[in-house]
Amino acid sequence: MHHDIAIIGAGAAGMMCAAVAGQRGLRVVLIEHAARVGEKIRISGGGRCNFTNARAGPQHFVSRQPGFARDVLSRYTPRDFAALVRRYRIAHHEKHKGQLFCDGSSQQIIDMLRAECELGRVQWLQPCGVRGVAREGSGFRLETDQGPLQARRVVVATGGLPVPKIGATDYGLRLARQMGLQVVSPQPALVPLAFAAEPWRPFAELAGVALEVRVACGGQHFDEDLLFTHRGLSGPAILQISSFWNPGDSLRLDLSPGNDLGEALWLAKLQSRQSLLNALGQFLPRRLAQTWVEMQRLPSDRRIAELADAKLKALGASLCAWTLQPTGTEGWRKAEVMRGGVDTAELHPATLEAHKVPGLHFIGEVVDVTGWLGGYNFQWAWASGYAVGMSV
Ligand code: FDA
Fold this sequence. Notes:
Elements: E1 2-8, H1 12-23, E2 28-31, H2 39-43, E3 50-53, E4 61-62, H3 70-75, H4 78-87, E5 92-94, E6 99-102, H5 107-119, E7 123-125, E8 130-136, E9 139-144, E10 147-156, H6 171-178, E11 183-189, E12 193-194, H7 197-204, E13 210-217, E14 220-228, E15 232-234, H8 236-242, E16 251-254, H9 261-271, H10 276-281, H11 286-295, H12 309-320, E17 322-324, E18 328-329, E19 337-342, E20 360-362, E21 370-371, H13 376-391
Parallel strand pairs: 1-2, 1-10, 2-7, 10-20
Antiparallel strand pairs: 3-6, 4-21, 5-6, 8-9, 9-10, 11-19, 12-15, 12-18, 13-14, 13-16, 14-15, 16-17
The protein binds dihydroflavine-adenine dinucleotide.
């Protein structure tokens, strides 16, 4: 069988690329090894798929080569994808900081992409694994579970390593290495962070407590919600900063952003007869305030007026600059995306074609371009799929 393009992986990027290339009249075969397509789309956004972010720009992506995504992102924007969603009459809404979600179900996005593939007369091989890819003449020969096939070009859209139980594999990374391309070490990202059991014990009891914080690490900071868990910290603030955290780094947390708590407690001392716990409770969830005061060995029920100014200042400062060192992440099982992947230095910034292997392209999460939390990763999947679908 001869095809213009063989695409490996029918996820977000692969289906987009197949639809675009097929609708340009190219003979496209889309190969997926899992029993269901678009599984990550299905489980995304709590089942409602945060399908893009209206504010997405190159600054929202992490890569060894910052700004690499600029060209691709500029040619297919969040507005373009939102227009496609509207064409299919999929009701949606903006939730938080530009995040666009389906009102109904993420299945609507999968159905839309399948319909777009239909329009492009895309041929499906599914379920069908790819066992090998090799150069043959001016194209490629693929060994698949359903026999060999030839294609002029191959597009690798196998995604990242998170959630292996729904189909994630390292096949794209192995193929890249086999073809002599560099791979930036893959790490779990947008992932909860864990702490050593013993020092974490007092905080483990706070599991379920959430509050808005400022978290900083690796030259980046986010103002978002944080969630205490039994093993560590989660919530959007932590998922975001996890993409900038490396083993050995410390996090710096301001548990009451926008407030100088030392000053606020000193004022409370002058103006009221309340207890320390009640004073702190105006700025923090009460359970957290209680734990914090106990850890500082301060008497929570004493009137704030009885505490020395220096103690109040130190207490306030400790809450505004809590420094703590995670021991690791919660790993691939809990990560939303993979950081790292095929080194962008190996790829043309407009066509995502490997410089060393003409005709071989990489799109989506398998590439070392990782979006922040909030619809950015799908936008990269759509835009990179579109870029290659249009360029081949
Ligand atoms: P994707 O993973 O979508 O597709 C890869 C496909 O390749 C899969 O179908 C896989 O089975 C297939 N495959 C793998 N190896 C193969 C092989 N050897 N042969 C054949 N097929 C193979 N992002 C966002 O922007 N908004 C959101 O709301 C969310 N929410 C979210 C929730 C959860 C729980 C997770 C885990 C992830 C998200 N994401 C997200 C991230 C988003 O899902 C992800 O970045 C995109 O799906 C990446 O698209 P790709 O097409 O690159 O990979």
